Amino acid sequence: MDKKVVGVNAGVVWHALNEVKEISISELARKLNMSVESTALAIGWLARENKVCLQNRDGAIEVFDEHHFPFCFG
Length: 74
Fold this sequence. Notes:
- This protein is of the alpha+beta class.
- The chain has helices at residues 3-20, 25-32, 36-48, and strands spanning 22-24, 52-57, 60-65.
- The protein is built from 3 helices and 3 strands, in the order αβααββ.
- Strands 1-3-2 form a 3-stranded antiparallel beta sheet.
- The longest helix is centred in the first third of the chain and has 18 residues, at 3-20.
């Protein structure tokens, strides 16, 4: 996948997270009509920029915007 596409998808994911604050990757993919793989790549992009936090909750990876916790590691 082209880096530009991943970057654009990261922007779409970022804006969606500002609306919902907390969501699983699969739910987010459905909401945005994107594949789980494309959504995960976009989240990885945002995680690398420290814009999201990830947490494993009941076997699903939950994504939070950066303001959900006072700090996050990763």
